[in-house]
Design goal:
21 helices, 49% helix
């Protein structure tokens, strides 16, 4: 009960703290000589070495070009970032600019915490961006986020293990379960890990895969739907898969725990984006030639193709910033051709360009990893074009942010496994709790 009360207070406090009559010109950070001058803080969640180093390098270059500017770079993993910005907003301790997740942006907008960035988009070139990512940050005909890169969830698999076991690439959920069960040989290799750890959104993601593949959605008309026949079928599927092919410890896995198993060659199948390429190359270089991506399975083989889950990772400028001109200039620096392609190549195939012209740029395409994994990257790109963020199939909404941030679906799965609650009982309880939070957020 204390946890539930805390969540409600956080949501209420965000709404109150974000309501402000603050006015600004957007030029804060420019001195009387027209130079950028001042100090800003930039938060990001690029915890992997190459991307983290890249942001630091560009910041140093920017400061060299603008000697009266100082940039403080702070890094937080995505689960930690959510807590950081929600509590920071209440305390008035948010950065000048930051990365975000699409579902974060809708909550930030609901809290009136962001500044418009249409001038940044126009400076970079509005027609260079894909329309879908831009729409995710739009409210009342203004844009509050700048898409930085895109990726989509697909099914990764080990070609060598399929060949060894005489298996084809699974096209349906039933085929996936049968293949994962046949390959499963712990502790040397697990068929597929099913993550359920709280403090992350992995179990929500996996359930969304199944429901979306069947043409359903977890959110409908502002309410969560965990008790439909399709959702119930999906919950039972992942519980069965957990029992058949997953390490017991995955009940507490978060995104990095999950990915690391595949990086190390410990799982035959996994769901992720093109970041799997770099993860395997770093941890198990001998397996790089043995991995490939396929579309997320369907319930029936002749079901329509669906993109399922796309993430368009944006950058935002915080309304509380009193140095917006510096923040905007720094963001625009990230999109200069040489810098931007270098950034994308920090994790080739993991970050697909947010700019249409860069996606066709020979300098971007000539990367050897992008060439080697062309088929898999094409699969991801197709999914990017067809998918949406979880819960945003009908456009941005505050409920999607709550759905993915509060770990209620993760707790539901844990209660089924650890407390032997029935699927029906646990899903009804989770549905009721989420819908209660939705009501609080819209009051």
């Amino acid at each position: 009960m204390k946890c539930k009360i805390f969540i409600s207070i956080v949501l209420f406090s965000i709404l109150i703290s974000g309501c402000s009559n603050e006015k600004d010109s957007g030029n804060e950070g420019i001195n009387s000589q027209g130079e950028l001058e001042g100090e800003i803080t930039f938060w990001h969640s690029f915890t992997q070495g190459p991307r983290k180093q890249y942001i630091e390098d560009v910041a140093k270059e920017f400061v060299t070009e603008n000697p009266k500017v100082k940039i403080n770079i702070e890094t937080f993993a995505w689960p930690e970032f959510y807590t950081k910005w929600t509590t920071g907003l209440q305390a008035g301790q948010v950065p000048d600019a930051s990365t975000a997740l699409p579902n974060h942006v809708v909550e930030m907008l609901d809290a009136h915490a962001l500044a418009p960035v249409d001038d940044v988009i126009d400076d970079i070139g509005r027609n260079r961006f894909y329309d879908g990512p831009l729409r995710e940050g739009e409210q009342n005909k203004k844009h509050y986020s700048v898409p930085l890169y895109s990726h989509a969830q697909v099914m990764w698999y080990r070609k060598d293990l399929l060949k060894k076991n005489g298996l084809d690439v699974p096209a349906t959920w039933q085929e996936l379960m049968e293949a994962a069960d046949k390959i499963n040989n712990p502790p040397s290799v697990y068929g597929l890990s099913v993550p359920m750890g709280q403090g992350d959104m992995m179990a929500t993601r996996f359930l969304n895969f199944y429901v979306r593949s069947g043409g359903g959605t977890l959110l409908k008309d502002g309410k969560v739907d965990l008790t439909s026949d399709l959702a119930q079928e999906g919950i039972k599927y992942w519980i069965d898969m957990y029992k058949k092919t997953s390490p017991q410890g995955s009940i507490n896995f978060k995104v990095l725990d999950q990915a690391t198993l595949f990086y190390q060659g410990k799982t035959a199948f996994d769901f992720n984006s093109g970041f799997q390429i770099d993860g395997v190359a770093t941890n198990s270089p001998n397996l790089v030639d043995d991995i490939a991506a396929a579309p997320i399975p369907k319930i029936n083989e002749n079901d329509p193709d669906r993109g399922i889950e796309t993430s368009n990772i944006p950058i935002v400028i915080w309304k509380h910033s009193n140095k917006k001109a510096i923040a905007k200039a720094f963001i625009e620096k990230l999109y200069s051709e040489e810098d931007y392609i270098k950034f994308l190549h920090a994790v080739p195939g993991g970050m697909l360009p947010a700019l249409k012209d860069v996606a066709k740029n020979p300098k971007y395409l000539e990367n050897p990893i992008i060439q080697q994994f062309k088929s898999s990257i094409d699969t991801i790109q197709k999914s990017v074009n067809n998918g949406t963020a979880i819960g945003m199939e009908n456009g941005p909404n505050i409920e999607s942010g709550i759905l993915t941030s509060q770990s209620i679906i993760e707790k539901m799965f844990q209660d089924i496994v650890l407390k032997d609650e029935s699927v029906k009982e646990a899903s009804e309880k989770a549905e009721k709790e989420l819908n209660r939070l939705f009501e609080i957020s819209t009051k």
